[in-house]
Amino acid sequence: MTEPGTRSGFVSVVGRANVGKSTLVNLFVGEKITIVSPKPQTTRNTIRGVLTRGGAQAVFLDTPGLHRPRTKLGGYMVKCAVSALFESDVVLFMTEPRLRVPEEDANIIEKLRKTEAAVFLVINKVDTVAKPDLLKIIENYIKLRPFDEIFPVSALKADNTGALLDAIFKRLPDGPMYFPEDSVTDMPERTLAAEIIREKALSFLQEEIPHGIAVEILLMRGREGAGDGIVDIEASIYCEKDSHKPIIIGRGGETLKKIGAAARRDIEALLGSRIYLQLWVKVKKNWRDNDLLLKNFGYDPKEA
Ligand code: GDP
Ligand code: MG
């Protein structure tokens, strides 16, 4: 996946509910990306969008929230969001104009204390506030921590968002293209397909793989000349230990076959076309330490 001379990075968008995080991410990645969430479980997957520009790729993570969790899944999601923060290159702390800093914002900012990422203060919905107030608001936030950059924006009106995007891209380190440059529109489908395969695998493996698995879609392409639209999908299931591989494959390939058959049914329903699915099982030691993308696919909630 790595090509020389490319830059890439993860950009986490964090903030209270309703401040406009999704609006901003959608604006950045373009209208072509529709975010579908066919199952509640898939919401834990925080990847939302990819934007590739001039040899650099930003992967935006619209984090599920850093609020106080009420459920186990909520708790897990907060953990995911927090861990995403620590592996991001840029964190956009997003809020909306309030003269007094809400307690929840102060809590989120506290959680950002130890991140090594560049942290931007993004005050959204500036279309709803008077300029003098905006300055006071910014003053109140920068009392809480030093922000690397500050952007008052309106995600809805695309006001000052171009400058924000430029600043984000300037911060991206050298790194691989995580997604093919030309398949941005496929990304949610790819993500969901990976998530479906992962879920099927976990359901057949139960407790047997203690460190979880990750799934990467290697190829997802409509077959040329296939009248009624066959989509070829090739995916790798990654596990961490050599001893896990035969468990996932099963006797005579039985388990992998079951995973593939179940995943195929769901992915066909998702895409509305017939698919031809090929799965490989690979050992990739420490995939969790070096690849946030795979982490997002691979976390097992039981571990959280
Ligand atoms: P999230 O919960 O942080 O992801 O917030 P959403 O992106 O779902 O947005 C919440 C609401 O705020 C929606 O009704 C948006 O239309 C609205 N909103 C987002 N950005 C702006 C903005 O710049 N100005 C105004 N006035 N409303 C906005
Ligand atoms: Mg949202």
Query: Could you say which overall geometry the principal axes of the C-alpha atoms support?
Result: elongated
What is the level 1 CATH name of the largest domain?
Alpha Beta
Query: How many alpha or pi helices?
Result: 10
Bound molecules: guanosine-5'-diphosphate, magnesium ion
Amino-to-carboxy terminus distance? 29 Å
Q: Return the string of H and E elements.
A: EHEEHEHEHEHHEEHHEHH
Give the strand order, joined by hyphens, for the main sheet: 2-3-1-4-5-6
Strand percentage lies at: 15-25%
The biggest sheet amounts to: 6 strands, mixed
Q: Please, what is the CATH homologous superfamily of the largest domain?
A: P-loop containing nucleotide triphosphate hydrolases
Protein structure class: alpha/beta
Spans where pLDDT lies below 50 across 5 or more residues: 31-45, 183-187, 290-304
The residue-averaged pLDDT reads 78
Radius of gyration (CA) equals 20 Å
The percent range for helix content is 25-40%
CATH fold assignment of the largest domain: Rossmann fold
Kindly describe this structure.
This protein has 304 residues and is of the alpha/beta class. 36% of the residues lie in helices and 22% in strands. Strand 2 (47-53) and strand 3 (56-62) form a beta hairpin. The longest helix is centred in the middle third of the chain and has 19 residues, at 187-205. It is elongated. The chain binds guanosine-5'-diphosphate (GDP) and magnesium ion. Magnesium ion (MG) is lined by residues 21-22, 62. Residues 21-22, 62 line the site of magnesium ion (MG).
